[in-house]
Amino acid sequence: MRKPLVGSVLFLLLATALPVLAQQGTAEIGGRVTDEQGGVLPGVAVVLTNEGTGVFREVVSGADGTYFAQQLIPGRYRISAKLASFKNFERGGLILAVGKTLTIDVTMIVGALEETVRVTAESPLVDTTSAKVGGNIGTDELSELPAMNRNFFATVSLLPGVQFNPSNQMGNDTIIASGQTNQNNNVAVDGGYNADDALGTSAGAQVRVPLESIQEFQVITSMYDAEFGRASGAIVNAITKAGTNQFKGVLFAEAASNKLTAADYFVRTQNLEKPTAVRRDWGGVIGGPIVKNKAHFFFSLERQVDNPNRTRVFPTRPSLNFSIAEDRTDWNTLIRFDHQINANNTWAVRWLREWAPQWYTIGTRQTLESFQDETDLDQTAVGTLTSVLGNARVNTVRVARTWEHWWHGNACFRTQGSKGGQEGLIFKQEAQGNQALCPPQLDYLSFLAQASTESQGPWDSNYQIEDDYSWFVPGKKGDHDMKFGFRYNNTELRRVSQVNSNGTFRFNTDLPFDPANPRTYPERFTVRTGTFNEFIKNHTYEAYAQDKWRVSPRTTIGLGIRYDLEIIPLDETGNPLFSVASSYPVDKNNFGPRLNFTHTLDEAGKSLVRGGYGIFYNRSILGAVDDTLEFGKFTSSAVVSFPTNAADPSPSAGRLPTDPFLANGPFVNRALLNQSYPPGVPVKNDGVVIFDSPNRKQPYAHQFTIGYVREIAAELAVHADYIRMVNKDMFLARNLNPALRATTSRTDQNITRSDAFGVLGEPYKQQVWLMENTGESTYDGLNLSLEKRYANNWSGRVSYSLSSSRGTAENQADKDTYQALTDMNLGLWRGPSSVDRRHILSMGARAEIPKTAGANLSTTIRYMSSAPFTIYSSAVDVNRNGELDDPVAAGTYSGTALNAMQNVAFDGGRNGARGPTYFQADVRAGWHRRIQAQKTLEVFLDIYNITNRANFDNPINANRDMRTPATFLVLTNLYGGGGFPRQAMLRLRFAF
Questions:
Q1: Which of 28, 465, 482, 716 has minimal Cβ neighbours within 10 Å of its Cβ?
Q2: Are 98 and 217 within 8 A, CB to CB?
Q3: CA–CA separation, 446 and 424 (whole Å)
């Protein structure tokens, strides 16, 4: 398995001129040099200087007067131009945003060379050469707007078509874009990959980047150029700050006391004691010159101590209701160094680290007895070398690594190790506990009690090497901004799982166990029979070529082609669909063409139409693919069930259970279990089996966009884009061993399983899922936004999206549980995506109040319409397929318990009902005072959720079940985990 890595490195070393993948996180400036009469001027020396660092780039205008500078670090630039017999030209204050192309024409005036013509004008708001749909978030918005959890995704989600998906867990905030679930984004920091290899972006970025360390974000939700890929959602590029020629820094501290935090909805309505919820953040950044105009450093340190509220209520067992403050802390460190070696070569390195233990992490159905914990050490590092190879060619080489050590556990497990569970906190070191020694979990109808089953870890690592080659060719039937690239990623994932080694007993009641009452006995028992060990690798190769062809001053055509290749070596032993165990599938025909255009409707470039078409390939999520290893045919770590296919019918009928694992109540019979499944001995898997498909492919999408942009004024622009995405080859598993139950009774154990598709060749006891690409979905969206750049003491952004996302697949581990024998029932399965919110409205604005000596106000406001869910009944197995999630008939449904939803319309299919809406308004009142020329003191009061609205999640899965009237349609969970009740934070910031 070492050959792909070695070959790739040799390839890059031997072919330095060969283009490899684009440097994410850079920008471009270009234009035409003319005299006062409009005649082109070749041979003009044009120098572009970063006003903060003094780092410069020099180019010479070509025969047609054009100049172009690629792969510039975003920032504030000054352009100067010189030519004999003409006055010097100079224009400063140009804001070069990440991923943007600034078009700045230069007009030279006849005169003495020692004279200078200084031009003052605002940077253009409209990029007249780009068809990308999305936007940029700069330093001002990141630092001046209230950002919940101090997470950049809170500000990024102000862009149209983006949902904010907050979390009470440390750094787990994320976004949902273009109707795709939150695992399908691609996040980079300074061009280095920054997403979780096992989970995608479902928990946000791999390493959280502190707000004070970020210079800018580029977010592309649709129609990204060929240089970007491996996502069906958004591309998010974060650029960290760099040092400048002046020593500058920030010291900050903020705090929210328990007195400034409101009680959440359930604490108020259930008369629970309000937990002590506090938050304290402090830290600072500093940057400056090591050698002026040459070398600079930047350093950031941030500490967070967060004790958010977490309340759970259980309508059938109110004695278990609780409200606590969870314990979350982290240390975040960033170091960056930049150096311009000479006029043609610059290099930079950056390291980012976050250590974030989280104690008491509570899931949707967990009681205080069943909480779990999580420890995370996340790191990312990147180094770049950018070389100017001539007047029109630039090359950048990048090497990056992202690595994580993690463990999800619980108090029982961690106390067993020689160091109290702390021995698992060093990279590649594994925890030493034994989950089988912990009490079993009790899975009641509405809640989980007694213990947690969570116990898994420990690490993953990704190495990335890439190169980007840019070449500007003018005067070839227009100007050509060409890029070519290649990237290689080597990913390793080590996973050890003892999840459910302590076992889980499932009940048909919420009553506590009573040995004298047969109805309180468990009706089913599941357990993992041994420790699962896995090591999986993934080699990915990406190559692209693109040409931004400026056909005329008003028209640009983008042409591109991209190729993606994944090689995930899997052991297919025991899989009857593979004749050779090493012949794992490799999808080799992933070519993605891109075609887009922009056309300005006026000479000044104030109005623009844009559009495009492309094929975009997503990446495979290793956390889904590795199920084929964990749940293979032969294993020494099976997850088995007793009885095998259905609940023991006796407890629900008032009789003692007959299954020997249930007869004594919720107590694990280890002797009998070890006799049936000897520890460490590989046996045929009697539990659920998941097979890989020889035809497994990478999911992809056809994207179509058409849009209009208008710069209404120098600081004001409106954007309107229509997006259509047709997703193909999405993962949706098929059951090769479907069941047919004799009756519709949920406890009927007369279940016959069959090799319905004729591929298994032998009997299996439970489901045999085939991971294949039979899913699809379609997204249609209209994105509208109004952006006001800061001027006249205020700035703002308003975004609205109207969208629809429907289909048969969402996440990569989806399974079609509506299948009946060989009928996939896709008509019933097809429905709205679980993240389909038809209306999304967001606003961010800030204003300086005149004549107040520095007072200012800012706000962010978000509204999202309801998300869908399914109403079902597990009381009967309507289609007799052994799965107890059949949707109920179309109609209007209401719950009868306290806080239950009323008059819920349901269309009878998957995700046919709609839940609560979401609204939150955050405000900031601040004051800043300049102490000296370069020193400012700022005081802010942030109030999050100022209306103290209770934003509810959809009913949890158990509460969507009509079988239990006491919990049916009852809202028991708040959005994001704790609902974010109103909280006021006082923040001090000293900038120098």
A1: 716
A2: yes
A3: 33
Q: Is 553 left (phi over 0), alpha (psi -120 to 50) or beta?
A: alpha
**Cis before 518? omega within 30:** no
- Number of Cβ within 10 Å of residue 595's Cβ equals 14
Mean pLDDT of the chain: 92
For residue 386 the two structure tokens come to 């950018």
Maximum Cα interatomic distance, the chain, rounded to a whole number of Å: 105
pLDDT at 13 over 70: no
Give 97-112 pLDDT, tens digit per residue.
888 899 999 999 988 6
- The predicted pLDDT at position 956 comes to 95
DSSP code at position 816: -
Indicate the DSSP class of residue 889.
P
In order of 184, 289, 605, 803, 875, the CA distances from 781 in angstroms are 17, 46, 26, 4, 38
- Candidates 359, 656, 610, 703; CA nearest to 518 is 656
Q: E strands of 792-854, at which residues?
A: 794-807, 831-832, 839-848
Please give the pLDDT value at position 115: 64
In DSSP notation, 579-599 reads SSTT--------EEEEEEEEE
Specify which residues 74 forms β-bridges with.
Answer: none
pLDDT (tens digit, 9 = 90+) per residue, 357-373?
888 888 899 999 999 99
The whole-angstrom separation of Cα 814 and Cα 167 is 23
Q: Is the peptide bond before 4 cis (omega within 30 degrees of 0)?
A: no
Residue 35's contacts (CB-CB under 8 Å, 6 or more residues apart) are 41, 86, 107, 108, 109, 110
pLDDT at 12: 36
H/E run at residue 95? strand 88-96
Top-confidence residue, 506 or 197: 506
- Check if the beta carbon of residue 862 is closer than 8 Å to that of residue 157: yes
CB atoms < 10 A from the CB of 389, how many?
Answer: 14
Is 349:339 a contact under the CB 8 Å cutoff? no
Residue 22 has pLDDT above 90, yes or no: no
| pLDDT given for residue 330 in this prediction | 93
Alpha-carbon gap, residue 443 to 367, rounded angstroms: 11
* E strand spans, 269-392: 278-291, 295-307, 309-312, 322-325, 327-342, 345-355, 358-361, 372-388
pLDDT score at 486: 97
Which residue has 């989970």 as its token pair? Answer: 199
Residues counted in the chain? 992
Residue 932: predicted pLDDT:
85
Question: What contacts 24+ positions apart, CB below 8 Å, involve 667-676?
Answer: 667/440, 668/440, 668/502, 668/503, 668/525, 668/527, 670/436, 673/527, 673/529
704-745 pLDDT, tens digit each: 999 999 999 889 999 999 999 999 999 999 999 999 999 999
DSSP SS3 for 184: helix
Spatial separation of the C-alpha atoms in residues 701 and 822, rounded to whole Å: 27
Q: For residue 3, give the 3-state DSSP assignment.
A: helix
Residue type present at position 513: F
CA pair distance 229, 245, nearest whole angstrom: 36
CB 476 within 8 A of CB 456: no
Contact 347, 384 (CB under 8 A): yes
Half-sphere exposure of 44 (CA within 13 A, CB side): 36
Cα–Cα distance, 317 to 319 (Å, whole number): 5
Quick one: which H or E segment has residue 139?
helix 139-144
pLDDT in tens, 106-131: 999 988 666 666 665 667 788 899 99
Which domains, from first to last, does the chain contain?
Answer: 24-119 (2.60.40.1120), 133-240 (2.170.130.10), 248-386+393-410+452-499+531-618+628-636+684-991 (2.40.170.20)
| DSSP-derived 3-state class of residue 627 | helix
Residue 728, Cβ neighbours under 10 Å: how many?
A: 15
